[in-house]
Amino acid sequence: MNLTPKYDNYFWDLDGTISNSQEGIYNSILYSLDKLSIETPSEEILRSFIGPPLYVSYMKYWYPGNEEKAQHAVSFYREYYQEKGVYENVVYPGIKDLISSLKDAGSRMFVTTAKPTRYAKIVIEHSGMSDLFEAVYGSEMDGNRSDKTELIQAVYDDYPETKNQKNIIIGDRYYDLQGGNNHGIDTAAVLFGYGSKEELQNENPSYICENTEELKSNLSQ
Asked: Helices 95-104 and 212-219 meet at what angle, rounded to 10?
């Protein structure tokens, strides 16, 4: 597809935006909870794990105020995830072609995800998309640098020229949009991921996209 990009730099969330990672994440959560002898939670709780830093979700539902226990739960999660879960995902239809076309037209692509960088790079490589991205920015294994405001800043620190260019972040959760808003850049909310329409509308995104066709029309001219 031939596109004329609206932006110089595109900051892409990963889970729920580039790829449907539900299977791997759910299986990893269930594995960790079994190890901890915790009952299987509702679909709503499982779904809420996709996007935010893991330890934050474990603290929210099972270990309020106890980050040490939450990080212990994360270690069980990763036992499964690094072996199997990281491969249990699929790129959303049309996303790879869209990213490829925007890059071919001269824009730069960056991944900005709360997922640890180590795993994010595996997902991108496994999906055959490594050559499409300038760099992959994720969190540290201890959960540091998982905030989208920090991740965008990390791009600016490493690529100073991007800060004064026309930028947009694309994501499916309010964390993504808040990060973009904090930097004063445009935001695109996708509804084919894991955030609700209400959640995303509350952050006043520049665009709300039901599907990849709508996303394409909003990201290009």
From this structure: 10
Q: Enter the tokens of residue 49.
A: 């794990």
21-54: per-residue pLDDT in tens? 999 999 999 999 999 999 999 999 999 998 788 9
**Token digits of residue 130:** 């490594």
* Residue pair 119/86 in contact by the 8 Å Cβ criterion: yes
Could you give the domains of the chain?
9-20+89-219 (3.40.50.1000), 22-87 (1.10.150.240)
Alpha helices in 20-164 (DSSP H): 22-35, 43-48, 54-61, 67-81, 95-104, 117-126, 148-158
Task: List the catalytic residue out of 8, 13, 172, 176.
Answer: 13
Q: Are 51 and 114 in contact (CB under 8 A)?
A: yes
Task: Judge whether 13 counts as a catalytic residue.
Answer: yes
